[in-house]
Design brief:
Strand content: under 5%
Shape: globular
Largest sheet: none
Structural class: mainly alpha
Order of helices and strands: HHHHHHHHHHHHHH
Number of strands: 0
């Protein structure tokens, strides 16, 4: 197990290096010149050349990449071109807000997905299985931003049960109760689309386990369904639950942009959107890199946990 963990850790470094290069290239070859965007169309060529030199954008591309990579490894994310403030503190605050929203979405998709998948698998082929999976598939095909707008219209504007935007009620301060109230609707909007993926995977795993020779033997000896569920079934489907959880966390982190925009959630999605619109390169590079690193790290942890639960996967 230790050897497997070391191999997986070593395999992560080339992946992260490729990720940094792709992130750098994607921003570097953007069709918009950030200097001209910052100075405006009426800026003189001398002013453009001076600011280009100050930002180091006139150096060879590999020199720029090496300088940027060295700064990243030293923990220096640079200053915003537009706001003229350090990137790291703002990025950290926004990323924590996004993690809170992603955690809410994960609770929704795993809570509903695992529950529905287990019961649909136990009653495979029944009317309950068909009806539940039909509605789950409908939920999976609803566009996230459309679902967010519908939820906001119904529960905020019509019924007035929940707040429509923001992360806290400024009149009440930053209380936990206010945060949870603001978290419900965006969590539902981002989590519902993933319920079908989780439910289908768990349902297939439950059917496989229940039809295995081991479980058929237990059933033939008269073991109750409840005892099989608690003692054997959940333990055997834990590996696919961990696997899909890791994938869904990555999806939720990278897919919160629309939800954050609809609900004015102050996360990294809205920060990246505004940075892209303003061509603020340091924020774009650091934000995309942070999300990509988190995704790779989560997959690494998931693989190790799954291998720990099932050594045959090594």
């Amino acid at each position: 197990m230790t050897g497997y963990m070391i191999k997986r850790l070593l395999a992560v470094f080339p992946v992260l290096l490729v990720v940094t290069f792709l992130v750098f290239l994607s921003v570097h070859f953007s069709p918009v010149n950030p200097v001209e965007s910052l100075l405006g169309n009426e800026a003189s060529p001398e002013a453009v050349a001076k600011l280009t030199h100050e930002l180091g954008l006139d150096k060879p591309i590999m020199n720029q990449y090496a300088s940027w990579l060295g700064a990243i490894f030293s923990g220096e994310l640079g200053d915003s071109i537009i706001r003229r403030v350090p990137v790291a503190p703002i990025l950290e605050e926004r990323f924590i807000n996004t993690l809170i929203l992603a955690a809410g979405g994960l609770v929704v998709c795993l809570g509903f997905g695992i529950t529905v998948g287990i019961f649909a698998g136990l009653k495979s082929g029944s009317w309950f299985d068909r009806v539940v999976m039909f509605f789950v598939m409908i939920g999976a095909n609803l566009p996230t931003f459309w679902l967010g707008i519908v939820l906001m219209w119904l529960f905020s504007l019509k019924l007035g049960w929940l707040p429509s935007s923001g992360m806290y009620d400024m009149r009440e301060g930053k209380s936990l109760a206010s945060l949870l109230q603001h978290l419900i609707l965006p969590s539902l909007a981002i989590g519902i689309s993933s319920v079908a993926i989780v439910a289908r995977l768990i349902r297939a795993s439950v059917i496989d386990v229940m039809n295995s020779d081991f479980m058929l033997t237990l059933r033939s000896h008269g073991m109750s369904a409840g005892r099989m569920l608690g003692k054997h079934l959940l333990r055997n489907i834990l590996a696919p639950i961990l696997t899909i959880s890791g994938l869904e966390i990555g999806y939720l982190l990278s897919g919160v942009l629309f939800v954050e925009t609809v609900f004015s959630w102050p996360g990294i999605g809205t920060l990246l959107y505004n940075s892209i619109m303003g061509h603020d390169i340091p924020f774009i590079q650091a934000g995309v890199l942070l999300v990509a690193f988190t995704y790779v790290l989560i997959n690494l942890i998931t693989d190790i946990l799954v291998a720990f639960l099932n050594p045959r996967l090594k």
